[in-house]
């Protein structure tokens, strides 16, 4: 239940993150578990630094040091960022750099209602729940029935089931359901063909409009999605790629020459080629290798309903029909008056 709020001490049923020598492991805190034969045995977690008896960490403070049979580690409070690094992979997941951009682009605040299509391993779902709780709601869908069931069990075990609804549904064919029509503030699609879900996103977003975001690994998917968004009346379309790079800061010593000799430059004062002193600077260096491609984020805004209806109205015809002879009469050009009362035609 440790994902719901921050606590000081570990309780039975919590999920904790075990940190050891730059390695992270997620552990469910249960004193006993069932083995392959269905028998209850003591829960002992095996690591490269020896065994950890899980019952020993119950009551320990989060962030404290725990002893293992061949070393020690630290037990940390779980967060969506740490969970994305330790969760069991049922599908390819979205990591923190992309998740942070998604949350910002969707304009989510506590109380928002957001729809996610493509639950997968639940990495993004945990971050969405943290952003919209306590009065918001996340509706997440997955076309794979077994994955949707596992995700629902996981949300219940983590104590966030009251903020998220996980369902098995093919949203590309069936949409998000009539009960969500006009209720969502934002829609996120992580689908092989996100352009097929654009019309359903329009139906789900509120009359006041909302934000849309899709995650696609291929640029061809982005192109088709952008065309569908334009046809549906979305505005402010943008596609971006998030690549996280770490700048390493270090100190470097640089030789410095004394340039006082320039005042008396001549044959009697030869130039000294040696540095007269050194100075230390703090410098930043980019890494030698850059992170690889993950996917493209396509974001857009659906304007309010009254603006959508206004944009669909045909433009007014400037030519007027003559009822007597059927000829068309052009609308006179607008006129303006200058300071000398002379008429000026505005072209």
TrEMBL record:
Q: Which Pfam families does the UniProt entry name for this protein?
A: GCD14
The keyword Transmembrane helix appears for this protein: no
Q: What is the lineage of its organism?
A: Eukaryota, Metazoa, Ecdysozoa, Arthropoda, Hexapoda
Reaction catalysed by this chain?
Answer: an adenosine in mRNA + S-adenosyl-L-methionine = an N(1)-methyladenosine in mRNA + S-adenosyl-L-homocysteine + H(+); adenosine(58) in tRNA + S-adenosyl-L-methionine = N(1)-methyladenosine(58) in tRNA + S-adenosyl-L-homocysteine + H(+)
Q: Which organism is it from?
A: Plutella xylostella
**What is the protein's given name?**
tRNA (adenine(58)-N(1))-methyltransferase catalytic subunit TRMT61A
EC number(s): the record gives: 2.1.1.220
Q: Where is this region: Disordered?
A: 307-347
Quote the subcellular location field of this record. Answer: Nucleus
